[in-house]
Batch of 2 targets.
Target 1
Amino acid sequence: MAGLANHRLLLPGMAALMLAAMPFSVPAQDSGDAMLVVRVQELLEEIRELRGMVESQAREIENLRRRQRDQYLDLDQRLQQLGREGVVTGAVPETDADSRDIVEDVRPIPSVAASPRADVPEVRAPIEADFEVTTLPAPAGSGPRDLGTPTDDEQAAYDRAFRALRETRYADAAEAFSSFLDQYPDSAYAPNAKYWLAETYYVTRDFETALRLFNQLLERYPGSNKEGDALLKIGFSHFELRQWSEARAALEQVRAQHPNTTLARLAEGRLRDMRLAGHF
């Protein structure tokens, strides 16, 4: 009886040893499923990493665009202050370095190596070929409008609209600039107000409305300090609307009328893009 009991105690251990010695294999289907699950997990992890990289780059680009916009708006505001302190003779004084646009567009911001100024666009080689381009029709009118010195009320209204624009409250800015133009159509700030009104639509990608307003600026305020900027944005708006002939005509006109300026360089860059894409 004691021997039988001992044998019974040994049987579980022997069975475990036999099972351990037996070759253990996973069915092929189960092995394939397991590998697939592991691969899916690896891909999901890679996607999470890539998504994090994209979000980080998007934030960096947005910060760059915001700084660029703030630089442009700061410059415009300083120039307005200079105009208030000086004598206004029909237009608000500005320089070539004045804001070309609030946000260039949704295209990547070009990098400028070893450049002393972050807001200067990349200088590209000129287009060597000569083209015969029909320029845009000249706006009606015999010359610049005689715009008077702005009053305190005009200045306050313009500053409110400009503040909304600076804070990227584009709907509020558009309403404020429209109201300003309704009340003070002959203000010294009217060309600027019209330009920034059009810009609020351009930056929100309503290119048709922006194009109409930029054209109105050329028609109503010929010879204004915003004429070159408006002509450039007319070309950009036509470009975004895929109206290649009109875009090329406006941009070539910018090059011809404003040589060796930031306006010309921006126009040149977009013309080069069009040429490389085969649009002319």
Target 2
Amino acid sequence: MSDFPAELKYANSHEWARLESDGTIVVGITDHAQDALGDIVFIELPEIGVEVTAGAEVAVVESVKAASDIYSPITGEVVEVNSGLEDQPELVNGSPYEDGWLFTVRVDSEKDYSALLDAEGYKGLLEEA
């Protein structure tokens, strides 16, 4: 069974978001998503400085099974990417909520964040699927 850290928020498209103390939001893909993808072999991350929109494609994850689009759960500016994934994309498989984060966004408003699902809501979404 996938794991759902309670401190995170979740998007229907299987990304997670974590609000940091400085107001930025760290984004990654859920344990469920990495498990469904299989062994991840490459990740195309967004560029720093790019404006992203909630629900819009922002990155691509390639696994041994397929390539999948990653969508931003929030609107804002990308201020950091996890450059460690260039050499070790498998970090997403082994540690999707810690070492395998994808990018960080500075938001103008936290309304997108507060609209995301909590852990129970995301678990319910998966149970319906």
